[in-house]
Amino acid sequence: MMYAMNLWAVLVSAVLAFGIGSIWYGPLFGKAWQKEVGLSDEKIQSGNMIKIFGISFILTLIMAFGMAFLFHKVEDAKVTWLVGLTHGLYIGVAFVVTSMGVNYQYEGKSLKLWAINSGYQVLFLMLMGAILGAWH
After folding, report:
1. Residues near 43 by Cβ (< 8 Å), separated by ≥ 6?
2. Using CA atoms, how far apart are residues 25 and 59, in angstroms rounded to an integer?
3. 120, 25 in Cβ contact below 8 A?
4. What's the mean per-residue pLDDT of the chain?
5. In this predicted model, what pLDDT tens digit does every residue of 23-59 receive, in sequence order?
């Protein structure tokens, strides 16, 4: 049977996950993140924002497609928003948080930076999973 992926759910989940980043790395943890990575306001403003945001959105969209594909693979089970949320949590903690932690150890990055970046990843993967699960 051919799987009909809900492209609207993929797009909406990617847009919302990307939008969470603007809050996470803005008013919530923006200054702490800036300090941890050593970026001044001037350095950030001098960056190519179209390139940075464009590539970031494309990568987020790829994650949404990947999660939708995984949900297709568990099609025998009823995928709901709660199942999607839970799968997002599992993926975030078991793969993203841990792999980032390994890299951060070798790169000598701070625990605080790891917590900020990992927290964002887990949160948006949970949201993405909930949306994809609800529209599965």
Report:
1. none
2. 17
3. yes
4. 93
5. 999 999 999 999 999 999 999 999 999 999 999 999 9
Rg (CA), the chain: 16
Give Dmax (Cα) for the chain: 54
Q: Return the closest-CA partner of residue 124 out of 90, 81, 92.
A: 92
Q: How many residues does the chain have?
A: 136
Which amino acid, one-letter code, is at 25? Answer: Y
What is the reported pLDDT for 91?
A: 96
Residue 17: which residues within 8 A CB-CB, separation 6 or more?
A: 60, 63, 64, 124, 125, 127, 128
Whole-prediction pTM: 0.91
Distances, alpha carbon 132 to alpha carbons 23, 70, 73, in Å: 21, 10, 13
